[in-house]
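ingest -> fold -> write
write: protein_1
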Amino acid sequence: MNIIKRVRLKNFRCHDEFDLDCDRPVTLIIGENGSGKTSVLEAIYMALRGKSFKAVDRDIKRHEADFFRAEIDLYDARKIIIRYSEQPLRKEFEIDEKKTTRLPKKNRYPVVLFEPNNIYLIESSPSRRRDYFDELYKQINDGYTVILGKYNKALKQRNDLLKLETVTKDDLFSWNILCAQYGVKLREFRNETIKKINKYITENYQSIAKNDDRCSIKYTGKNISENEYLKELEDCFNKDRALGYTTFGVHRDDYEFMFNGKNADGSASRGEMRSIILALKFIEAKILEQETGLKPVVLLDDIFSELDEMRQKHLIFNFKDYQMVITSTNVPADMQVNKNL
């Protein structure tokens, strides 16, 4: 079941030198805030996904150092080394002695990352909810990443033209076509994935809350044809030109968390919203396993401080079949510490 065997860091964030054995199904790292606990999860995430979930590379290296190195040993005998240097400026991944500037797709591994701010997803902004679900979709299907990148490039070109006083509808036509083409594909994938989540979310929620309340996620982007999408963009021309940006499209869509038929943000209590997010996280792990055929590594970053004892127990129980690396400021009941910082 274990994927990660050992983590070694050099000049990574606040760590001069760091070494951690992940020889148990659950690895627990204890330390005060600011002691570098999250940095360990960040290094694991980079090794498995190819990028940080927090910052750009130059912000990761320890203050006054001119390089960092992260070395992750896996149980399948592979070793992933990440190197970053400023003189000369270079970043590389080394896997089985083969060096690349990016982590190859074949070497990426699914990860469930649970951060404290995830608890507030229901109450957060539409852009944060889009970012959250986009990261999930990217792990499920590499094609989603490609299409989203193409959409964002076409959207940027359209927005740049909208800032020109002389822009006409004809100037936007080719970019409208591309936005419609990619936007429809993104919406289709989002709608299908949300349907899968909704099949299980009430059941998972009720197993946590021990009641008959029902919850679901409503994606606001409707499935429409490319021609309908194109017409929406053309109809918005005057408004978009006045504002200087594109007001219609998948980049404006949102996810509404529903609780007993009403928007959870306003109808659910803080405890109920936390149970909904827990249920979502459990489903995320299941979907990643179903779609990739791999059991994801579960990274839990200081989440116990946000959950009561009952929800802490559900968290550990529901992720028991996955390797977990957990950071915390204190030791939860019945858990052994792997590393004190």
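write: protein_2
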Amino acid sequence: MKPVEVNSLRKSYGNLKAVDGISFTVNEGEVFGLLGPNGAGKTTTIEILEGLRKKDEGTAKVLGFDPWQKGYELHRKIGVIPQDFTFFEKQTPREGIKYYADLFNVKIDPDEILKEVLLEDSAKNLFENLSGGQKQKMGLALSLVNSPDLLFLDEPTTGLDPNARRAIWEVIRGLKAKGKTIILTTHYLDEAQQLSDRVAIMDHGRIVAMGTSDEIIEKHGSGERLQIHGSEKLADYIRANTELKVEYSNGVISIPLKQKIDALAALAAAEQSKMDWGEIQTRRDSLDDVFVRLVSGTMDEHGEITGKSVHDKSSNQRRQ
């Protein structure tokens, strides 16, 4: 049994299909990233898995439980940080942990948990006086009070500055190193790429891509390309004097590389042109590049990705 097993899950609000037949599993000890634009269905999916919202169709098993039917039993085994986590303003992190321990009727060492989330130096500070990053660390601390088998982290770094975000990343990496299973939703694609073992990208209630970041980039990316900083006139020259596909935008000439020797041909043409050109580099798509292409329905050079074909592909994924 896997910690999370979802099959053909659906949830609608009137004519809006918030979750439209998605299927996925989460492996023990992995960080599974759930990505998508606003309105993609991420939060609805998470709330169904947490037992906070009732599904319309399909099945969802979390730690072997039906979340809606066995919510009480499930909640004793999971930890949750909701979006926009907040707490009693006049309580300290240590007091909050003790309060949660009483609610769960467990005995824990508050200082041990505070150390685990890198918050021991602020143990006695009031919640209202904590920084944004410290407040999120307190949320993580509270989610660990019941020694959960599975953590739901719903956009845990939204609104934080880069240093605070990276501090939360270190905490999440530490939890993963201890074998915790984590479902992470985030708007930050670099965060997902840094932390997640696998990701699922949602759009309009469907999963449009799933796998490791590298697998998704390999399948849906545009491949390696050469970039030359130069003029549109230079781009026209390279295009006219090679058999390469040449694109130009905002001072950057971009040339897809089907093979390494294509880069030599492009640079030879640039040199032959006697025109000025500047920095050169080769680049591959990031998860962010692929994400934008998938959720916007942009067609790639092979005509494989459009708004319609993305959804068709997700259907194919569910059948496989």
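write: annotation protein_2
Residues 224-283 form a domain with the Alpha-Beta Plaits fold (CATH 3.30.70).
The radius of gyration is 24 Å.
pipeline exit 0
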